[in-house]
Amino acid sequence: MARTTMSDLITQVRTRINADTADYTIGTANYWDADQIEGVLDRHRLEVWQASVAPLESYDGGGTVQYLDYPLGHEFLEQTDAGTAVFFLEAGDHTKIGTANYSVDYDRGWVSFTADQKGSAYFLTARSYDLNGAAAEIWRQKAARFAESFDFSTDNMRVAHSQKLKHANMMADTFDKLSTRGGFSVSTMIRSDVEVNP
């Protein structure tokens, strides 16, 4: 059974693949139900573990600097629910920050605190998903389903199933291009065991 923490992400993928729970049937299995979409999403999951997140500087009404907003650097995060520890923030001493102290925009990857955090850095543990990569994989599976159909014509009509195959492959390519994974990323690593003299 699909995790309740995934329901929003599953819905967003469903809109990308233009499919309900009975898009087509193979044997006795109807495609695409929540479990099947979640399975694809899990193949497009990035585990984020204790990633450092820094605040954005802003100003209150009196011009005083405050630190309320933390861009997390990862989008489309699995939500936390009923104590499920798939998303949490930790302080430098690894104590978890209470969820009552902040709100999360899981799609944007953005945390907003209710009180000034005085510039404190936190550490994020979460699961981030590539929704477009998942949609591309599903469109390819749909294309494989359409590939077994063939075009035919009768005296009064012509049926071109190949158009469905062409469309599915085109959609897969489109979502591949929108995918956030692949290629390479660059990050700065600082060694704490080496002293650098200016």
3D architecture notes:
With 198 residues, this protein is an alpha+beta fold. It has a domain at 45-129. Helix content is 27%, strand content 25%. It contains 4 helices and 11 strands, in the order αββαβββββββαββα. The chain has helices at residues 7-17, 34-43, 131-146, 162-178; strands at residues 24-26, 29-31, 45-53, 56-59, 65-71, 88-90, 102-105, 110-113, 122-129, 152-153, 158-159. The strands form 4 sheets. It has a 4-stranded antiparallel beta sheet, with no helix packed on it. Strands 3-9-6 form a 3-stranded antiparallel beta sheet. Helix 1 (7-17) crosses helix 2 (34-43) and helix 2 packs across helix 3 (131-146). The longest helix is centred in the C-terminal third of the chain and has 17 residues, at 162-178. The relative contact order is 0.16.
Which terms would index this structure?
alpha+beta, 4-stranded antiparallel sheet, 3-stranded antiparallel sheet, 25% strand, elongated
* Envelope shape: elongated
Amount of helix: 25-40%
Largest sheet: 4 strands, antiparallel
Could you give the count of β-strands? 11
Regions with little confidence, pLDDT below 50 for 5+ residues: none
Radius of gyration: 23 Å
- The N- and C-terminal alpha carbons lie at a distance of 57 Å
Q: Give the averaged pLDDT, no decimals.
A: 88
Secondary-structure element sequence? Answer: HEEHEEEEEEEHEEH
Could you give the order of strands across the largest sheet?
A: 4-5-8-7
Q: Please, how many helices?
A: 4
